[in-house]
Amino acid sequence: MRPIEGITVTVDLEEMKILGFKDRSTVPVPKADGTDYRESSQNHHLGLRWKGISMHQSDGPSFTIDGHKIRWANWDFHLSFDARAGPVISLASIFDLQKQKFRKVLYQVPLEPLRDCPENAVFMDAYVADHNGTPVNMPNIFCIFERYAGDVMWRHTEAAIPGKVIREVRPEVTLVVRMVSTVGNYDYVNDWEFKQSGSIKVTFHCIKARFGSNIGYTGENLHILVGLTGLLEVRGSMYTHKDQIKEEAYGTLLAENTLGANHDHFFTYHLDLDVDGDANSFVRSQLLMTPVTDHRSPRRSYWRVVSETAKTESDARIKLGVAQEDLLVINPNKRTNIGNFIGYRLIPGSVAAPLLSDDDYAQIRGAFTKYNIWITPYNKSEKWAGGLYVDQSRGDDTLARWSLRNREIENKDIVLWYTLGFHHVPYQEDFPVMTTLSSGFELRPANFFESNPVLKVRPPEPDNWSNCSRA
Amino acid sequence: MRPIEGITVTVDLEEMKILGFKDRSTVPVPKADGTDYRESSQNHHLGLRWKGISMHQSDGPSFTIDGHKIRWANWDFHLSFDARAGPVISLASIFDLQKQKFRKVLYQVPLEPLRDCPENAVFMDAYVADHNGTPVNMPNIFCIFERYAGDVMWRHTEAAIPGKVIREVRPEVTLVVRMVSTVGNYDYVNDWEFKQSGSIKVTFHCIKARFGSNIGYTGENLHILVGLTGLLEVRGSMYTHKDQIKEEAYGTLLAENTLGANHDHFFTYHLDLDVDGDANSFVRSQLLMTPVTDHRSPRRSYWRVVSETAKTESDARIKLGVAQEDLLVINPNKRTNIGNFIGYRLIPGSVAAPLLSDDDYAQIRGAFTKYNIWITPYNKSEKWAGGLYVDQSRGDDTLARWSLRNREIENKDIVLWYTLGFHHVPYQEDFPVMTTLSSGFELRPANFFESNPVLKVRPPEPDNWSNCSRA
C-alpha cells in the first residue's frame, strides 16, 4: 500500500536476475497510517460484539461428488480446472420430471480461479503445471455448498374462497460452485449458482485488495484495462489535498500522497450452450412500441415482440442497453407441445462499453469488449477472446477478428460470448481494501419446460436443532 | 388459472351488489390440467429427498428492536408501515467509528407491502384502516433477520514476504428488512439489506402467481402497466397450438387456450436522502473517452471523469443506459480530510424504458417512467409519483408534471426518484406459477468515510453446534 513511484525494473526470468532499473521520477512515499487491513493490527473494534451465525445441515449436503461429476437436485454436471480460465463447467444437464430424462443445457463454460466458504462447504483440489512442467497441487481450489439465504423460490397466497386461504411457499435452496482467485492486486470470487428452476446464475464479486500496479494484465476471460498504462495506475503522488490538483490526475485522491486510478474490469464468458442438443440458433426478440390508430380502443399504443433469428455472425454482435430485447438461444429443431421453440434466455448484468479509441493498443487487444454479445460457430481453436497470446499481441487472434469471417450461425453448434464489465472510479471507501462489488448474469429457461419445473419440488425441511445445547 | 373470458361485471361498492354484466365474447375455458400448484395436489415429486438446511444463531440475533427503532451493527433506523407505500424506512444513520458519531444517510423511503422468512427472523405487526375507518391489525407484516449466505465482505491474500502469507477474510453478514405483498395476481418480496460497509441494497423479487386480470393497478411506487388493457392481459383463447396464431396475440401461448400477455413492471422509489445533513446536491460524473494526440505516449486514449452538479430539475432527468456515468448525491458543505465531497452513489439495477406512446393514457398517468432518475426539491405534497389519485386521472398530479416547474435543486433538501423496471414477455416456465425474478439497486458510500469503514469490524463467529444431537 506504499508504492515507491517511478521505478522500472528489468528482470531476466530465465536466470531470475535483476538486470537493471530506471528511476523516472521522485514523489513522496505515502504514509503507512490506515493502510494495514489485518485484524491483528486494529487497536480497537466497532462496538458490536457479534453473536454466532451459521448455515447448518445436520444430515450433510444433498449433493454428491463422484470424481469431477457433481449431482444435485435436478442438475448433473462436470467441474474441472484450467490454469488460465479457472473453473470449467461442462456437460450440464437438467432432469425433466415430465419427460423423465436429463436434457442438455450447456456443453462447456470456462470461468475464473477458493476458499472463503461457509461451514457446510465441500472442497476440491486441482492441478497446474509449474514453469518447469512439474504438476503442482492446488488444494481447495473450489468449494461447493448449498445456499439457503432466506429467499423464496416461489410463493402464492390466494383468498378466493372465503375462509379458505391457500398459501404455498417454496424456499430457495441453490447449489453454489465457487472459486476465489487473486490476480494482481485484486481478489475475485466467481460463483456459479444452480437453481432447481433450471436457471444458472453467475455472479462475479470483485474485491480490490489495494491499488497497485496491475498494468496490462489481459487474460482472455479476465481482461483488466488500466487506462494510459504506466501513467494512470494508482500511484504515489505529490498531492495531499484535492484542491492542489489543477491538471488531469487520472483518478481520485484516496489518502495523502495516494492516487487511485480510474480503470475498467471486463469479464468474458465463453458459453458453449447446447440447448436440448448441439444445433442451436440465436434469437433477438425486440420489443417495439406499436401505435394504435384505428380508434376502436381508447388506447394509443402497445408493444409487440419481433423475433429475428441471427443468420450470420454480424447479426449477433450486440451492444446492450440500446434496444429493449430478450436474447435467446433456441433449439430450432425442437418445440414444446404447444409449439414454442425450446430455449434458454440470457439476462445480462452490469453493462459497460469500452471508453478507449479503436486504434489504442489496449483496445485493439481487447476488441472483444466492443460488443457485449458475440456468437460464433464452435471452433476448437477459438478459445480465448483476447487471443492465445495476449501480451504484446497486435489483435490478430481475437474474437473481433474471427467474427469478421461472418460465418453462418443458424442451427449450428454455437458459442455465446458474453462480456460484462464496469468502469471503476475509485472512492475513499476503496482504500486500503475495497468491499465487494458484484455483477453477473442469469441463464434462464425460456420455453425449455412445458410449465414451471419446480411445482413438484418438495419444500426442504428446516434443520431441526431445537434440542441442541451450545457447545 | 381458468379464466372465463370476456365478461364485464358492474358492481355497486357501497351496496356491495352486482348491478349487471356484459358477455362480450365466448372462448373455451382452459383445461384445469397442470394449473394446481399446491403441494397437496402433486401426485409425485422430484426424486431428491431434501436434507435439512437452516440458518442458525444459538445466541439469538445481534440486532435490537425498540418499538419501531431498529439498531444493528453500525446502523440505526426507524421502520413503519404505510397502507399504500408499504414499509417506510426513516432516519437511517450509520455510526462512524473514526468520528465516533452517527451520521445521517436518508430521511425517508417508502417502499412496498411479509412472511416467508428464515428461522432466525423476528416479525413485526402493522395497522391499516379498513373501508369504514376501523383499525385492522396486520400481523407479521415485516420480518427482520440477519443473513449469512456464505458470501465475502472483503478478503485479501498477500504473499509478498516469502513464507509469510497474509490472508484476511471477513464474511458478509447483513441485516434484511423484508415485506411480502400480494397485489392482484402477483406476489412481491421487497428486501432492504443494510451492510456494515455503509451500503443499502434494495432487492425487488417479482413472483407472478398466475396470469389474471391485474389491469390498471397503479399505486405510486408500484406501477404495473398492462399493455392495451382489457384486450391484452392474459386470457382464455381459441388457440391450442402456436401455429394457429396468424395475427398479433399480444403475448405467448402458455398452455392450451391460455395466453400470457406481454406486460411491464415499474417500481419507483422515493429516496429522500440526507447525506450527512439535509442540504444535498445531485452530481453526474460522466466518463468520457479522451484522445491522446501528443505522441509522448504510445497510448491513443484514456477516459476521464467530468462531474457536473445539477442546478435545476431538468439537469437531473436521466434515461439510464445512454451515458456511462456515476450518479452521486453529495453534501456540498462537507468534505473529507483530503478534500473530496462527502457522498453516496446510486448503483442502478435492471433498466427499462416505457414502450408506450406519450399520448397513451397508461403512459400519461405513468409518465414518471419516462426517466429512470428524477430529482425534486422536497415538497410534502409531492409523495406519489403517479399522483395522489391514480385511477381515471389525467396525469395532472404526477412527478413528470411537478418537474416541469424546473426548480432549483442544488444544495437543497432533495428527493431522488428512482424507477427500475422490466418488460415481461411470458414463457411457459411462468405457468401456472412463475419463479422469482429479481432486480434492485444499491446505495453505496462514495467518499462518505475517510477510508474503508469495515476494516475494524470483527469477524463474526461461526455458530458452534458441534456438540449437538439431532432432535
UniProtKB/TrEMBL annotation, chains A, B:
PANTHER family: AMINE OXIDASE, COPPER AMINE OXIDASE. Its EC number is 1.4.3.-. Contains 1 topaquinone per subunit. One of its GO terms (biological process) is amine metabolic process. This is Amine oxidase. Belongs to the copper/topaquinone oxidase family. Residues 109-205, 222-455 form the Copper amine oxidase catalytic domain. Pfam families: Cu_amine_oxid. Its cofactor is Cu cation. The keyword Metal-binding applies. InterPro entries: Cu_Am_Ox_Cu-bd (IPR049947), Cu_Am_ox_TPQ-bd (IPR049948), Cu_amine_oxidase (IPR000269), Cu_amine_oxidase_C (IPR015798), Cu_amine_oxidase_C_sf (IPR036460), Cu_amine_oxidase_N-reg (IPR016182). Topaquinone (TPQ) is generated by copper-dependent autoxidation of a specific tyrosyl residue. The modification 2',4',5'-topaquinone is found at Y186. GO terms for molecular function: copper ion binding; primary methylamine oxidase activity; quinone binding. The keyword Oxidoreductase applies. Keywords: Copper, Metal-binding, Oxidoreductase, TPQ.
